[in-house]
Amino acid sequence: MRIAYFRKLSLSWAAFAVFFPFVSAQQTERPGFPAPRYPDLKRNFSDEELLNIARRVVRKPSERDQLRPGYGIRKGEKVLIVVNSNFNRRVLDAISKAIAEAGARPDTMITSAAPVTRSPEGWQELAPALAEHREDGRDRLAFAQSWYTSEYEIPLKLATIGNYDLVIHGEAGPVPTTTFRWEYIPWNTLAKFVTGAPDFPIEVQELIDQKVWGALRQARKVRVTDPEGTDITWTMKPEYFELLKTEWPGYGSDVVMKGHVSLTPLFTAPGLDAKGVIAGTINHTGTFPHIKLFMEEGTIVRIEGGGRNGELWRQYLNKYKDMHVPTFPGPGGGWLIEVALATNPKVVRPPETQRGEPGMLWERLRSGIIHFGLGLTKPPDSQTRPEYAEFLRRNNMAGFHFHVHTLFNTVDVETADGKTIRIVDKGHITFLDDPEVRRAAALHGDPDQILREEWIPALPGINVEGDYSKDYAPAPDVWILKEMQRYYDAR
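The structure corresponding to this sequence follows.
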Protein backbone atom coordinates (compact mmCIF):
# COMPACT_ATOMS: atom_id res chain seq x y z
CA MET A 1 0.00 0.00 0.00
CA ARG A 2 1.38 3.38 -0.96
CA ILE A 3 1.51 5.90 1.90
CA ALA A 4 1.66 9.67 1.58
CA TYR A 5 3.18 11.92 4.22
CA PHE A 6 1.97 15.06 5.94
CA ARG A 7 4.17 18.15 5.69
CA LYS A 8 3.57 19.99 8.96
CA LEU A 9 2.71 17.89 12.00
CA SER A 10 5.29 15.88 13.90
CA LEU A 11 5.00 13.40 16.75
CA SER A 12 5.23 14.60 20.30
CA TRP A 13 7.58 12.69 22.58
CA ALA A 14 4.60 10.99 24.24
CA ALA A 15 3.24 9.81 20.90
CA PHE A 16 6.69 8.59 19.89
CA ALA A 17 6.87 6.44 23.03
CA VAL A 18 3.66 4.68 22.02
CA PHE A 19 5.19 3.49 18.81
CA PHE A 20 8.60 2.68 20.33
CA PRO A 21 7.86 0.31 23.23
CA PHE A 22 11.53 0.20 24.32
CA VAL A 23 11.16 3.80 25.55
CA SER A 24 10.21 3.76 29.24
CA ALA A 25 9.97 6.13 32.16
CA GLN A 26 13.53 5.18 33.16
CA GLN A 27 15.54 6.89 30.44
CA THR A 28 19.16 6.04 29.75
CA GLU A 29 19.64 8.55 26.94
CA ARG A 30 22.09 11.40 27.36
CA PRO A 31 20.75 14.69 28.72
CA GLY A 32 20.26 17.60 26.34
CA PHE A 33 19.86 15.69 23.08
CA PRO A 34 16.60 16.35 21.20
CA ALA A 35 13.85 13.74 21.28
CA PRO A 36 13.20 11.81 18.06
CA ARG A 37 10.79 13.31 15.57
CA TYR A 38 9.26 11.86 12.44
CA PRO A 39 6.83 13.43 9.97
CA ASP A 40 3.30 12.39 10.76
CA LEU A 41 1.45 10.31 8.20
CA LYS A 42 -1.35 11.35 5.95
CA ARG A 43 -3.13 9.08 3.52
CA ASN A 44 -4.43 10.11 0.11
CA PHE A 45 -2.15 13.08 -0.49
CA SER A 46 -3.95 14.89 -3.30
CA ASP A 47 -2.58 15.60 -6.76
CA GLU A 48 -3.24 19.30 -6.19
CA GLU A 49 -1.09 19.32 -3.04
CA LEU A 50 1.78 17.70 -4.96
CA LEU A 51 1.28 20.16 -7.80
CA ASN A 52 1.54 23.13 -5.43
CA ILE A 53 4.96 21.89 -4.28
CA ALA A 54 6.05 21.36 -7.88
CA ARG A 55 4.93 24.87 -8.83
CA ARG A 56 7.25 26.35 -6.23
CA VAL A 57 10.16 24.22 -7.44
CA VAL A 58 9.51 25.26 -11.03
CA ARG A 59 9.65 28.94 -10.03
CA LYS A 60 12.90 28.67 -8.07
CA PRO A 61 16.01 29.94 -9.90
CA SER A 62 17.90 27.51 -12.09
CA GLU A 63 21.41 27.42 -10.60
CA ARG A 64 22.60 23.85 -11.29
CA ASP A 65 22.41 23.22 -7.57
CA GLN A 66 22.18 19.56 -6.55
CA LEU A 67 21.12 20.29 -2.98
CA ARG A 68 18.22 22.65 -3.66
CA PRO A 69 17.25 22.30 -7.32
CA GLY A 70 15.15 24.95 -9.00
CA TYR A 71 14.09 24.96 -12.61
CA GLY A 72 13.52 28.63 -13.46
CA ILE A 73 11.09 27.67 -16.22
CA ARG A 74 10.44 30.26 -18.90
CA LYS A 75 7.58 30.29 -21.38
CA GLY A 76 8.33 28.51 -24.64
CA GLU A 77 11.21 26.38 -23.34
CA LYS A 78 11.68 22.71 -24.17
CA VAL A 79 12.43 20.57 -21.10
CA LEU A 80 13.63 16.95 -20.99
CA ILE A 81 13.00 15.05 -17.74
CA VAL A 82 14.96 11.79 -17.34
CA VAL A 83 14.26 9.44 -14.41
CA ASN A 84 14.47 5.70 -13.87
CA SER A 85 11.57 3.32 -13.41
CA ASN A 86 11.86 3.41 -9.61
CA PHE A 87 10.99 7.12 -9.51
CA ASN A 88 7.61 7.92 -7.94
CA ARG A 89 5.18 8.58 -10.82
CA ARG A 90 2.97 10.97 -8.87
CA VAL A 91 5.95 13.22 -8.13
CA LEU A 92 7.03 13.00 -11.78
CA ASP A 93 3.53 13.88 -13.00
CA ALA A 94 3.32 16.87 -10.68
CA ILE A 95 6.64 18.29 -11.87
CA SER A 96 5.76 17.73 -15.52
CA LYS A 97 2.37 19.41 -15.11
CA ALA A 98 3.87 22.40 -13.28
CA ILE A 99 6.39 22.88 -16.10
CA ALA A 100 3.58 22.81 -18.66
CA GLU A 101 1.55 25.29 -16.60
CA ALA A 102 4.53 27.67 -16.69
CA GLY A 103 4.33 27.67 -20.49
CA ALA A 104 7.14 25.24 -21.30
CA ARG A 105 6.96 21.87 -23.08
CA PRO A 106 8.10 18.93 -20.93
CA ASP A 107 9.09 15.59 -22.41
CA THR A 108 9.74 12.60 -20.14
CA MET A 109 12.10 9.67 -20.59
CA ILE A 110 11.95 6.75 -18.12
CA THR A 111 14.96 4.46 -18.09
CA SER A 112 14.89 0.89 -16.83
CA ALA A 113 16.08 0.08 -13.30
CA ALA A 114 16.02 -3.12 -11.30
CA PRO A 115 13.47 -3.13 -8.45
CA VAL A 116 15.07 -2.19 -5.14
CA THR A 117 14.07 -4.60 -2.36
CA ARG A 118 16.58 -3.52 0.29
CA SER A 119 19.09 -0.76 0.76
CA PRO A 120 22.68 -1.49 -0.29
CA GLU A 121 25.17 -2.01 2.51
CA GLY A 122 27.79 0.55 3.43
CA TRP A 123 30.76 -1.55 2.30
CA GLN A 124 29.57 -1.20 -1.31
CA GLU A 125 30.84 2.39 -1.33
CA LEU A 126 34.42 1.10 -1.10
CA ALA A 127 34.15 -1.94 -3.36
CA PRO A 128 34.78 -0.23 -6.75
CA ALA A 129 38.05 1.30 -5.53
CA LEU A 130 39.50 -2.13 -4.69
CA ALA A 131 38.50 -4.08 -7.79
CA GLU A 132 41.44 -4.39 -10.16
CA HIS A 133 39.05 -5.54 -12.87
CA ARG A 134 35.33 -5.92 -13.09
CA GLU A 135 33.74 -9.09 -14.41
CA ASP A 136 33.45 -7.62 -17.88
CA GLY A 137 37.20 -6.92 -17.95
CA ARG A 138 37.04 -3.15 -17.52
CA ASP A 139 39.59 -1.68 -15.15
CA ARG A 140 38.95 0.83 -12.37
CA LEU A 141 39.43 3.98 -14.41
CA ALA A 142 37.42 2.61 -17.31
CA PHE A 143 34.67 1.63 -14.91
CA ALA A 144 34.46 5.14 -13.46
CA GLN A 145 34.53 6.71 -16.90
CA SER A 146 32.00 4.30 -18.36
CA TRP A 147 29.57 4.90 -15.48
CA TYR A 148 29.77 8.63 -16.08
CA THR A 149 29.31 8.14 -19.82
CA SER A 150 26.40 5.71 -19.53
CA GLU A 151 24.66 7.90 -16.95
CA TYR A 152 24.68 11.00 -19.14
CA GLU A 153 25.25 9.84 -22.72
CA ILE A 154 21.61 9.33 -23.70
CA PRO A 155 20.27 12.54 -22.08
CA LEU A 156 23.09 14.51 -23.67
CA LYS A 157 22.38 13.11 -27.13
CA LEU A 158 18.63 13.60 -26.81
CA ALA A 159 19.04 17.14 -25.52
CA THR A 160 21.34 18.04 -28.39
CA ILE A 161 19.20 16.43 -31.09
CA GLY A 162 15.96 17.78 -29.63
CA ASN A 163 17.33 21.26 -29.03
CA TYR A 164 16.23 21.27 -25.39
CA ASP A 165 16.73 24.30 -23.18
CA LEU A 166 16.83 22.32 -19.91
CA VAL A 167 17.59 18.74 -18.89
CA ILE A 168 16.33 17.56 -15.48
CA HIS A 169 18.21 14.43 -14.47
CA GLY A 170 20.22 12.92 -11.60
CA GLU A 171 20.28 13.05 -7.81
CA ALA A 172 23.84 14.03 -6.90
CA GLY A 173 27.41 14.26 -8.14
CA PRO A 174 28.89 16.24 -11.03
CA VAL A 175 26.98 16.97 -14.22
CA PRO A 176 28.44 17.42 -17.69
CA THR A 177 29.38 20.81 -19.06
CA THR A 178 26.66 21.81 -21.53
CA THR A 179 25.43 24.75 -23.56
CA PHE A 180 21.94 24.22 -22.10
CA ARG A 181 20.79 24.20 -18.47
CA TRP A 182 21.01 21.01 -16.41
CA GLU A 183 19.24 20.52 -13.07
CA TYR A 184 18.79 17.67 -10.59
CA ILE A 185 15.65 15.75 -9.59
CA PRO A 186 16.42 13.97 -6.28
CA TRP A 187 12.83 13.35 -5.05
CA ASN A 188 12.39 9.76 -6.18
CA THR A 189 10.04 8.97 -3.27
CA LEU A 190 6.94 10.74 -2.06
CA ALA A 191 8.36 11.33 1.42
CA LYS A 192 11.30 13.28 0.02
CA PHE A 193 8.96 15.51 -1.95
CA VAL A 194 6.22 16.34 0.55
CA THR A 195 8.04 17.08 3.81
CA GLY A 196 9.18 20.59 2.89
CA ALA A 197 12.70 20.07 1.51
CA PRO A 198 12.20 20.81 -2.22
CA ASP A 199 10.22 24.01 -1.67
CA PHE A 200 11.98 25.27 1.45
CA PRO A 201 12.10 29.08 0.96
CA ILE A 202 15.23 29.84 -1.00
CA GLU A 203 15.77 33.23 0.69
CA VAL A 204 15.75 31.54 4.09
CA GLN A 205 18.11 28.79 2.88
CA GLU A 206 20.55 31.36 1.56
CA LEU A 207 20.48 33.36 4.78
CA ILE A 208 21.18 30.27 6.91
CA ASP A 209 24.08 29.37 4.62
CA GLN A 210 25.47 32.88 4.80
CA LYS A 211 25.24 32.94 8.60
CA VAL A 212 27.13 29.65 8.89
CA TRP A 213 29.66 30.72 6.30
CA GLY A 214 30.14 34.08 8.02
CA ALA A 215 30.98 32.37 11.32
CA LEU A 216 33.29 29.97 9.54
CA ARG A 217 35.16 32.83 7.89
CA GLN A 218 36.20 33.95 11.38
CA ALA A 219 37.49 30.51 12.36
CA ARG A 220 41.11 29.75 13.07
CA LYS A 221 40.31 26.37 14.60
CA VAL A 222 37.32 24.06 14.16
CA ARG A 223 36.25 21.23 16.45
CA VAL A 224 33.51 18.69 15.68
CA THR A 225 32.21 16.28 18.32
CA ASP A 226 29.38 13.76 18.13
CA PRO A 227 28.07 11.26 20.72
CA GLU A 228 28.79 8.30 18.43
CA GLY A 229 32.51 8.91 19.01
CA THR A 230 33.65 11.71 16.69
CA ASP A 231 36.04 14.26 18.19
CA ILE A 232 38.24 15.97 15.63
CA THR A 233 39.96 19.36 15.36
CA TRP A 234 41.79 21.21 12.59
CA THR A 235 43.25 24.63 11.86
CA MET A 236 41.56 26.98 9.40
CA LYS A 237 44.10 29.17 7.64
CA PRO A 238 42.89 32.44 6.01
CA GLU A 239 44.13 31.30 2.61
CA TYR A 240 41.75 28.31 2.68
CA PHE A 241 38.80 30.55 1.85
CA GLU A 242 40.47 31.91 -1.27
CA LEU A 243 41.37 28.35 -2.21
CA LEU A 244 37.73 27.34 -1.93
CA LYS A 245 36.66 30.10 -4.30
CA THR A 246 39.41 29.18 -6.75
CA GLU A 247 38.61 25.47 -6.77
CA TRP A 248 34.84 26.00 -6.92
CA PRO A 249 34.26 28.92 -9.32
CA GLY A 250 30.68 29.96 -9.84
CA TYR A 251 29.55 29.34 -6.26
CA GLY A 252 29.97 32.95 -5.20
CA SER A 253 32.16 34.57 -2.61
CA ASP A 254 30.00 33.77 0.41
CA VAL A 255 29.01 30.10 0.30
CA VAL A 256 30.65 26.89 -0.88
CA MET A 257 28.44 24.99 -1.58
CA LYS A 258 24.81 26.07 -1.03
CA GLY A 259 23.12 23.75 1.42
CA HIS A 260 26.45 21.93 1.73
CA VAL A 261 28.65 24.36 3.65
CA SER A 262 32.26 23.20 3.56
CA LEU A 263 34.03 23.26 6.93
CA THR A 264 37.33 22.52 5.15
CA PRO A 265 38.71 23.44 1.70
CA LEU A 266 36.45 21.02 -0.20
CA PHE A 267 38.33 18.27 -2.08
CA THR A 268 41.68 20.04 -1.92
CA ALA A 269 43.52 18.72 1.20
CA PRO A 270 46.18 21.48 1.28
CA GLY A 271 48.02 20.13 4.29
CA LEU A 272 45.05 20.06 6.66
CA ASP A 273 46.28 19.26 10.17
CA ALA A 274 43.12 17.41 11.27
CA LYS A 275 43.65 15.30 14.37
CA GLY A 276 41.25 13.10 16.32
CA VAL A 277 38.57 10.52 15.58
CA ILE A 278 35.74 10.27 13.05
CA ALA A 279 33.14 7.67 14.04
CA GLY A 280 29.75 6.47 12.86
CA THR A 281 27.69 3.77 11.16
CA ILE A 282 26.34 5.37 7.97
CA ASN A 283 27.68 6.39 4.57
CA HIS A 284 26.12 7.24 1.20
CA THR A 285 25.35 3.64 0.20
CA GLY A 286 24.07 2.25 3.51
CA THR A 287 25.03 1.24 7.03
CA PHE A 288 27.85 -0.75 8.63
CA PRO A 289 28.94 -1.73 12.15
CA HIS A 290 30.38 1.15 14.15
CA ILE A 291 33.70 2.38 12.79
CA LYS A 292 36.40 4.66 14.19
CA LEU A 293 38.86 6.44 11.89
CA PHE A 294 41.87 7.79 13.81
CA MET A 295 43.36 10.87 12.16
CA GLU A 296 46.77 12.54 12.32
CA GLU A 297 47.86 15.46 10.13
CA GLY A 298 44.77 15.17 7.97
CA THR A 299 44.95 11.48 7.09
CA ILE A 300 43.76 8.15 8.49
CA VAL A 301 46.42 6.38 10.56
CA ARG A 302 44.30 3.60 12.07
CA ILE A 303 40.83 2.08 11.76
CA GLU A 304 38.86 0.24 14.41
CA GLY A 305 35.73 -1.79 13.71
CA GLY A 306 33.45 -1.21 10.75
CA GLY A 307 32.79 -4.84 9.88
CA ARG A 308 33.28 -5.53 6.18
CA ASN A 309 33.34 -1.80 5.45
CA GLY A 310 36.24 -1.36 7.88
CA GLU A 311 38.13 -4.30 6.39
CA LEU A 312 37.76 -2.93 2.85
CA TRP A 313 38.86 0.51 4.03
CA ARG A 314 41.99 -0.99 5.59
CA GLN A 315 42.71 -2.81 2.32
CA TYR A 316 42.28 0.42 0.40
CA LEU A 317 44.70 2.32 2.69
CA ASN A 318 47.26 -0.45 2.38
CA LYS A 319 46.91 -0.44 -1.40
CA TYR A 320 47.76 3.25 -1.69
CA LYS A 321 50.03 3.72 1.31
CA ASP A 322 53.13 4.34 -0.82
CA MET A 323 51.50 6.23 -3.69
CA HIS A 324 51.83 10.02 -3.63
CA VAL A 325 49.10 11.52 -5.79
CA PRO A 326 50.00 15.03 -7.00
CA THR A 327 48.46 17.98 -5.10
CA PHE A 328 48.10 15.90 -1.90
CA PRO A 329 50.45 16.52 1.05
CA GLY A 330 52.07 13.08 0.98
CA PRO A 331 51.61 9.42 0.08
CA GLY A 332 48.46 7.50 0.93
CA GLY A 333 44.75 7.53 0.15
CA GLY A 334 43.11 8.45 3.45
CA TRP A 335 43.11 12.25 3.26
CA LEU A 336 40.30 14.25 4.87
CA ILE A 337 38.97 16.23 1.91
CA GLU A 338 35.35 16.92 2.83
CA VAL A 339 33.51 18.03 5.97
CA ALA A 340 30.13 19.08 4.59
CA LEU A 341 27.47 20.58 6.85
CA ALA A 342 23.90 20.40 5.55
CA THR A 343 21.53 23.30 6.20
CA ASN A 344 17.97 22.29 5.11
CA PRO A 345 15.83 21.42 8.18
CA LYS A 346 13.09 19.70 6.15
CA VAL A 347 15.03 16.70 4.86
CA VAL A 348 13.86 13.41 6.41
CA ARG A 349 15.03 9.81 6.50
CA PRO A 350 12.59 8.22 4.04
CA PRO A 351 10.29 5.54 5.50
CA GLU A 352 11.58 3.19 2.80
CA THR A 353 15.06 3.22 4.37
CA GLN A 354 16.43 -0.33 4.81
CA ARG A 355 13.47 -1.80 2.93
CA GLY A 356 13.55 -0.34 -0.53
CA GLU A 357 15.21 3.09 -0.51
CA PRO A 358 18.62 2.76 -2.22
CA GLY A 359 21.25 4.03 0.15
CA MET A 360 21.40 6.81 2.75
CA LEU A 361 22.36 9.65 0.43
CA TRP A 362 19.28 11.81 0.93
CA GLU A 363 19.32 12.09 4.71
CA ARG A 364 22.82 13.62 4.72
CA LEU A 365 21.16 16.85 3.52
CA ARG A 366 19.27 17.54 6.76
CA SER A 367 20.48 20.59 8.64
CA GLY A 368 23.12 19.83 11.28
CA ILE A 369 24.18 16.50 9.77
CA ILE A 370 27.79 16.28 8.56
CA HIS A 371 29.23 13.90 6.03
CA PHE A 372 32.99 13.44 6.25
CA GLY A 373 34.70 12.47 2.99
CA LEU A 374 38.12 10.81 2.90
CA GLY A 375 40.12 9.75 -0.13
CA LEU A 376 41.74 11.21 -3.23
CA THR A 377 39.00 13.09 -5.10
CA LYS A 378 39.63 16.54 -6.57
CA PRO A 379 37.02 19.09 -7.70
CA PRO A 380 35.37 17.50 -10.76
CA ASP A 381 35.53 20.56 -12.99
CA SER A 382 38.76 22.07 -11.69
CA GLN A 383 41.24 23.15 -14.34
CA THR A 384 43.75 24.33 -11.75
CA ARG A 385 45.30 20.90 -11.08
CA PRO A 386 45.92 19.20 -14.46
CA GLU A 387 48.74 17.12 -12.95
CA TYR A 388 46.16 15.32 -10.81
CA ALA A 389 44.07 14.15 -13.77
CA GLU A 390 47.20 13.16 -15.70
CA PHE A 391 48.45 11.07 -12.76
CA LEU A 392 45.15 9.19 -12.56
CA ARG A 393 45.21 8.50 -16.28
CA ARG A 394 48.83 7.34 -16.26
CA ASN A 395 48.31 5.05 -13.25
CA ASN A 396 44.88 3.74 -14.24
CA MET A 397 43.22 5.15 -11.11
CA ALA A 398 39.87 6.70 -10.32
CA GLY A 399 39.73 9.46 -7.71
CA PHE A 400 37.45 7.84 -5.17
CA HIS A 401 36.45 9.11 -1.76
CA PHE A 402 34.36 7.51 1.00
CA HIS A 403 32.12 8.77 3.77
CA VAL A 404 31.00 8.68 7.37
CA HIS A 405 27.80 10.51 8.35
CA THR A 406 27.47 12.03 11.83
CA LEU A 407 24.00 12.94 13.10
CA PHE A 408 24.18 14.83 16.41
CA ASN A 409 27.18 17.07 15.82
CA THR A 410 28.39 19.95 17.93
CA VAL A 411 30.59 22.31 15.91
CA ASP A 412 32.64 25.04 17.60
CA VAL A 413 34.90 27.50 15.84
CA GLU A 414 37.61 29.39 17.66
CA THR A 415 38.28 32.86 16.27
CA ALA A 416 41.58 34.70 16.01
CA ASP A 417 40.80 36.66 19.18
CA GLY A 418 40.09 33.49 21.16
CA LYS A 419 36.30 33.63 21.12
CA THR A 420 34.18 30.55 20.48
CA ILE A 421 31.20 30.50 18.11
CA ARG A 422 28.95 27.45 18.26
CA ILE A 423 27.62 26.75 14.78
CA VAL A 424 25.87 23.46 15.60
CA ASP A 425 24.65 22.25 18.98
CA LYS A 426 23.75 18.54 19.33
CA GLY A 427 22.61 18.34 15.72
CA HIS A 428 20.81 21.69 15.67
CA ILE A 429 22.21 24.58 13.63
CA THR A 430 22.19 27.52 16.02
CA PHE A 431 21.41 30.02 13.25
CA LEU A 432 17.96 28.48 12.87
CA ASP A 433 17.24 30.51 16.03
CA ASP A 434 18.85 33.70 14.74
CA PRO A 435 16.41 36.67 14.83
CA GLU A 436 17.20 37.68 11.25
CA VAL A 437 16.63 34.13 9.99
CA ARG A 438 13.35 33.95 11.92
CA ARG A 439 12.18 37.24 10.40
CA ALA A 440 12.95 35.94 6.92
CA ALA A 441 11.05 32.72 7.64
CA ALA A 442 8.08 34.68 9.02
CA LEU A 443 7.52 36.14 5.54
CA HIS A 444 6.55 32.61 4.46
CA GLY A 445 4.48 31.52 7.47
CA ASP A 446 5.02 30.42 11.05
CA PRO A 447 8.81 30.54 11.64
CA ASP A 448 8.56 27.87 14.33
CA GLN A 449 7.15 25.44 11.77
CA ILE A 450 9.34 26.52 8.85
CA LEU A 451 12.62 26.31 10.78
CA ARG A 452 11.91 23.20 12.84
CA GLU A 453 13.75 20.03 11.83
CA GLU A 454 11.11 17.77 10.28
CA TRP A 455 13.02 14.64 11.28
CA ILE A 456 15.28 13.87 14.24
CA PRO A 457 16.71 10.33 14.26
CA ALA A 458 16.50 8.00 17.25
CA LEU A 459 19.68 6.47 18.61
CA PRO A 460 19.64 4.23 21.70
CA GLY A 461 21.66 5.56 24.60
CA ILE A 462 21.71 9.02 23.02
CA ASN A 463 18.13 10.26 22.71
CA VAL A 464 16.10 7.11 23.47
CA GLU A 465 16.52 4.42 26.07
CA GLY A 466 19.03 1.69 25.32
CA ASP A 467 22.68 0.80 25.04
CA TYR A 468 24.30 2.26 21.91
CA SER A 469 27.20 -0.20 21.89
CA LYS A 470 24.95 -3.26 22.29
CA ASP A 471 21.61 -2.36 20.74
CA TYR A 472 22.73 -0.33 17.72
CA ALA A 473 26.46 -0.25 16.90
CA PRO A 474 26.94 -3.92 15.86
CA ALA A 475 24.00 -3.96 13.40
CA PRO A 476 22.58 -0.48 12.70
CA ASP A 477 20.64 -1.75 9.67
CA VAL A 478 18.61 -4.10 11.87
CA TRP A 479 17.87 -1.36 14.41
CA ILE A 480 16.88 1.21 11.77
CA LEU A 481 14.57 -1.26 10.02
CA LYS A 482 12.81 -2.03 13.31
CA GLU A 483 12.58 1.71 13.98
CA MET A 484 10.89 2.30 10.62
CA GLN A 485 8.51 -0.59 11.16
CA ARG A 486 7.60 0.33 14.74
CA TYR A 487 6.65 3.82 13.72
CA TYR A 488 5.42 3.82 10.13
CA ASP A 489 3.74 0.40 10.14
CA ALA A 490 1.76 1.46 13.19
CA ARG A 491 0.22 4.41 11.38
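The longest strand covers residues 287-296.
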